[in-house]
Amino acid sequence: MSKQETILYRNGNIYTVDARDSRAEAVAVKDGRFIFVGSNAQAEAIEADRVVDLQGKTVVPGFIEGHGHVTWGSMDAVFRINLFGAEKVEEYLENIRRFVAENPDLEVYEGVGWENPFFGEHGPSRKLLDEICPDKPMLLYSHDKHTAWVNTCTIVRCGVTKETTVPEGNIIEREEDGTPSGTFREFAAMALVEKILPEYGKEDYKKAIRWGQDFFASLGVTTVQDPVLDPNGPAIEALHEMEQDGELKIKYRGAFRTFEDKPNEFLDYMKETSAAVASHMFRIDQVKIFVDGVVEGRTAFLKEPYADDPDYCGYPIWKFEDLVEFGKKIDRMGLDLHFHIIGDAACAQMLDLLDAIREDNPDRNEERRPVCTHLQVVDPADYPRLVSHRFAAVTNPYWHFKYRGFFDAIEQPYLGERADREYPMQSMVDAGVILGAASDYNVTAVPNPLNGIQVGVTRCWVEEDPEDMNLVLAPEERVSRQTLLRAFTMGNAYSARLDEETGSIEPGKLADMVILEQDLMEVPVTQIHKIRVLQTISEGNVIYEA
């Protein structure tokens, strides 16, 4: 649209997601912002250069991805073996064989997307990959990117032996004689074998980012929060240059990756880079901290022991005194902390850290805006503390069901009765916790917010019957469609410090909106995921059209 052009959209079914959850029939857009929101009758007074008849279609604010590894995931989609969606081990192996055969000139084979339940407690073996490619390094990440599966060539080239050790909270799976078996869990362990990965340049990242923003726009997403931007890599420079060149169609907000074994190495870089790239379309205002790992890797940090091991609660990834020292430094820099939290002990440790930060830097107490994501096992006793610190709890409703393989084979055996209460939502709503929602792309391979809304409402997978209580995870944690719509819009806008700019359809805010083929509040609940996005509009510009 022309910057000076006024466009009037009328005859719509518009969910504004303002403070009153108002409905409207018409909006007007000029200079990338909403200048009017109201009824068709009120819209008669608008002098528009162009009128769009919505013909009763539903309009919602632009969806915001509250925690998605958009640069990682886009690189995976463009450059790596895709293992998502397989139903058995042989499918993984066939996909790997095919990729190797089709790409004989690559020096290293990378992939992502395999799932832990198919390989048992100790993960996949190097020997399976040796049969496909014994003479070149191979590294394949699990779907959650908390585990790497490698072949013998990789282990040898990286110098990993029976004697190699890793910090608590990390695991090298081993054969009976101590030889690394090929599975490396959590980031310090994976770093040992990531030395063989090829180096991708800035232009490679730009290619992937172009693909990624088109993909997200097709799902109605107008803003993404990318929670792990590596100070060592070219992603930040690629995004910054694309912003300067006017190539970004959607807004990017980021968080710097941290390294618990060298927490202070990039402090100056973070401070300088956050200031240097601060712009309307791309900012990095957060620092990401992994407090613990994941249940499937037995690296989540729990208050009570794992159900199958009465002496083991998992470990935090950081030593608490190091975490406190680092957190205080980040807070004094004026950046927000963005926490990966799976277990209830990890949640409590995060809250203890915030207590210490609040005491250390009281001048920032009214401004501070911490974010936590995942929240698989949460002690209800900690809800008031989440509220007290005004945490944005960015949940992952895409996962709030009894995931095939995971629930029966991993979550119930490891968590016991806690598995039946995992991923709380309604109880946090009742407690007053601020909720966001995210896919954790590409842990969720298809980050369609409408999928997330349906699963969050039904607590079963989109193809399953929500009336069958055997398929429903913690039915008492079901939330309303309006709650999920708010989480994917205003909730995530709050977590990204964008709530004054976007997240709702109100005069003065950026004209970010999505036109849907059907009304997500009125279709049968089992059909929400099938609703088509007809248009995605970012700041008045159509960036996707079906």
Describe the structure.
By secondary structure, this protein is an alpha/beta fold. Among the domains are: 6-62 and 508-545, Urease, subunit C, domain 1, CATH 2.30.40.10; 72-196, Diaminopimelate Epimerase, Chain A, domain 1 (Roll). 29% of the residues lie in helices and 21% in strands. The protein has helices at residues 40-43, 70-79, 89-102, 126-130, 152-157, 187-193, 202-217, 235-244, 267-276, 320-332, 344-360, 383-388, 406-415, 426-431, 449-458, 481-495; strands at residues 6-10, 13-15, 23-24, 26-30, 33-38, 50-53, 58-61, 63-65, 81-82, 109-114, 138-142, 147-150, 171-174, 180-185, 221-229, 251-256, 282-290, 336-341, 371-374, 392-395, 434-437, 513-516, 533-538, 541-545. The strands form four sheets. It has an eight-stranded parallel beta sheet. A six-stranded mixed beta sheet has the order 3-2-7-22-23-24, with no helix packed on it. α2 (70-79) crosses α7 (202-217), α10 packs across α11 (344-360) and α15 (449-458) packs across α16 (481-495). The radius of gyration is 23 Å and the shape is globular. The model has no long low-confidence stretch (mean pLDDT 96).
| Main sheet overview | 8 strands, parallel
Task: Going across the biggest sheet, name each strand in turn.
Answer: 8-15-16-17-18-19-20-21
How far is the N terminus from the C terminus?
18 Å
Overall mean pLDDT:
96
Secondary-structure-derived class: alpha/beta
- What does the radius of gyration come to? 23 Å
- Number of separate helices: 16
Write down the CATH topology of the domain at 72-196: Diaminopimelate Epimerase, Chain A, domain 1
Helix content: 25-40%
What best-fitting shape do the alpha-carbon axes yield? globular
Share in β-strands: 15-25%
CATH architectural group of the domain at 72-196: Roll
What is the tally of beta strands?
Answer: 24
Low-confidence stretches: none
State the name of the first-level CATH class of the domain at 72-196: Alpha Beta
